[in-house]
Amino acid sequence: xxxxxxxxxxxxAPTAEPSSPRPLGLWLLTVLLLASxxxxxxxxxxxxxxxxxxxxxxxxxxxxxxxxxxxGTLMLRRHERAxxxxxxxxxxxxxxxxxxxxxxxxVLAVLALIYLQLPAARRFHPSVxxxxxxxxxxxxxxxxx
Length: 145
Fold this sequence. Notes:
Blueprint: H1 24-46, H2 58-76, H3 82-100, H4 103-115, H5 119-124, H6 130-136
């Protein structure tokens, strides 16, 4: 008799243990992203410029008032695309840092990207599984064939 091999089916549940605690660095990054509108607004009201907070550019206001809190919310909810979203956001911060000649902003963004590579951060926010994405959009059958 021939054995039938059954491929494991992907689930929508996060791959990390639900009871695993959020690492302190991820809490810090999440809170900073969620508080971004407050920090940017305070910098604007006080006429200050901290890193890129307080910038008068409309695009920067869009990023810090809308995009940063969305990325923070994805992280807070442990959304499967949170890690990717943070990578994109921080990469854009590095480009912004280059544009405004802010080494501190660039260094902080690079350090955050490096932190996201540590095992604890990778366990809590795993990378996107391309097989699950392909299956979800209908380009791959559930049987893997």
